[in-house]
Design goal:
The protein is an alpha+beta fold and 500 residues long. The protein is built from 18 helices and ten strands. The protein has helices at 5-12, 17-20, 22-27, 33-66, 73-81, 102-113, 115-133, 137-153, 175-178, 274-277, 284-324, 336-366, 375-383, 386-397, 400-412, 416-448, 459-467, 476-488, and strands at residues 159-162, 186-190, 193-204, 211-217, 227-233, 239-244, 255-266, 270-272, 326-327, 330-331. β2 (186-190) and β3 form a beta hairpin.
């Protein structure tokens, strides 16, 4: 039944129906094939947890505690053997082409056993998402195929994102804040490319990655207008690794310092710069922020899945303990106070999951997943034989017109309201998931008492690991402001966000 004009107007009133019901709108549009794909991914993740993650989680944590310079190549090579670094790379770029939303469920599963190992896999896609968000199809095709080749040869090819600086962490994720940060990462335009100077810090997987998506700035006096996104290979002249951070939690995943001293990056490795953004209808600053929002709308949902995973891991350890322990002559699990705590923890996991799932629906309709999840394209990509992709599709990706077309579709085709919707929901998923992760770890320790402090019970590791979730991908404080900016402020004409 068609809605009357009066009803349409009512549904557009704040809060807009579409802002609070992405999943309802998306259900009919989502390809049914995604359901079985997601089931398969979860089954693979559970098998990987049983065979690899749980047996090694505490050992990896201890190794990195005893030797902070130790690099977890053994695990990375194992994940590479299982095909995880190409699993969510689209088939047109040589990957396995699993639907992107399924990665959140995968991350939750791995995170329930060990956040460090979930990050060793997941953060590779943070780098790949940044590259994809520039819609530089030639470069996406080139690096994606290097990842796939590394899987076949047994030499893992990971991609990191290098954006955080010593004097600018959360600042770099908001155009309103980046000009106030102490930005030092400079890219000087020279004949044939850029010369880069500066440092990046807290770069997850830095020491393990073969490629680094580097975000620097052409003019340090106006960085918000002059983003430059470069693909930098490990070993490039003028690029070196500094220290590894000695962290409280997520020790198994290195956080690296990257140092650039007159590092020349040729034009062929420039993913996006101010000159390339001039062909788009938004200003350079707006385009830069749109690209960042494209990335964080995916990765903040991923961090929400990390939080959901650790919340679930803490719950499962507490449930196991309650079933095995007697208090006052009866099983702990039969005490009402324990049942209430376990129910609270289960509720927290469910709420966190619903938030990242809703964000995935938003990304599928309005964000970076949109093109891949259109029903004709989704099934077309699945059915195309590999030889056709390699002979016909892959060469097309190297054409300049393909990059222009995809930027027209991906960047010009996204409305401001859609940017706000995906970005706002991503922040909700991030905040809720990470807060629930911390909360469940605390509840598990309360329920388990002294036993929960023992390393072999895992919960103390979960708590150490979970705290970092509230800090990276934009602090939770910033994400609260982003929720206000994207989903609330437009209905309040006098509201100003990030006011000086």
């Amino acid at each position: 039944m068609a809605l009357s004009q009066e009803f349409r107007v009512l549904l557009e009133r704040e809060p807009k129906f579409i802002d609070i019901m992405c999943s309802l709108e998306a259900t009919a549009k989502q390809p049914k094939g995604m359901i079985n794909e997601t089931k398969e991914v979860v089954a693979i993740a559970r098998k990987f947890n049983d065979e690899v993650v749980r047996p090694y989680a505490l050992e990896l944590d201890r190794k990195r505690t005893e030797d902070p310079e130790f690099l977890p190549w053994e695990f990375v090579k194992k994940a590479n053997e299982w095909g995880f670094y190409s699993m969510w790379i689209p088939k047109i770029f040589g990957g396995k082409g699993y639907c992107m939303p399924s990665m959140s469920y995968f991350i939750e599963e791995i995170g329930s056993a060990c956040l460090s190992m979930a990050n060793l896999i997941g953060v590779h896609y943070l780098g790949f998402a940044t590259l994809t968000a520039t819609w530089n199809m030639r470069l996406v095709n080139r690096l994606a195929r290097k990842v796939v080749k590394g899987e076949k040869t047994g030499d893992p090819c990971l991609i990191s994102l290098a954006i955080t600086e010593p004097g600018a962490g959360t600042d770099v994720e908001e155009s309103e804040l980046v000009d106030r940060g102490k930005i030092t990462g400079h890219a000087e335009k020279v004949k044939g490319g850029y010369v880069v100077n500066g440092r990046k810090v807290f770069i997850s997987n830095g020491h393990l990655s073969a490629w680094h998506m580097l975000v620097v700035y052409g003019d340090l006096k106006r960085p918000s207008d002059t983003y430059v996104v470069l693909a930098v290979p490990t070993g490039a002249k003028g690029f070196s690794f500094g220290r590894q951070e000695h962290k409280m939690g997520q020790k198994g995943c290195p956080a690296s310092e990257l140092i650039f001293e007159d590092c020349f990056i040729p034009d062929e490795l420039v993913a996006m710069d101010e000159g390339q953004s001039r062909g788009l209808f938004r200003s350079a600053r707006e385009t830069n922020m749109q690209i960042i929002d494209y990335v964080v709308s995916v990765t903040r949902a991923g961090v929400g899945a990390f939080g959901t995973g650790v919340a679930r891991g803490a719950f499962e350890e507490a449930l196991k303990f309650a079933g095995e322990t007697e208090v006052d002559g009866k099983p702990l699990i039969n005490h009402e106070w324990a049942q209430c705590m376990l129910a609270e923890m289960y509720k927290n996991v469910t709420i966190a999951r619903l938030c990242y799932v809703e964000t995935n629906y938003a990304n599928g309709m309005y964000g970076i997943f949109k093109t891949l999840q259109m029903k004709p394209l989704y099934y077309y990509a699945k059915m195309l034989p590999k030889f056709y992709i390699d002979l016909v599709i892959a060469p097309m990706m190297n054409k300049n017109w393909m990059t222009k077309l995809m930027r027209k579709i991906g960047l010009d085709g996204q409305k401001d309201e859609e940017i706000h919707r995906t970005s706002g929901w991503a922040s909700i998923a991030k905040v809720v998931g990470t807060d629930m992760g911390i909360r469940n770890c605390q509840l598990a320790l309360e329920l388990m008492g002294q036993a929960g402090l023992r390393q072999d019970k895992v919960v103390e590791k979960h708590l150490r690991d979970s705290k970092l979730l509230q800090i990276y991908e934009g602090t939770n404080q910033l994400n609260h402001l982003n929720i206000f900016k994207c989903l609330i402020a437009r209905s309040c004409p006098r509201a100003v966000v990030f006011d000086e």
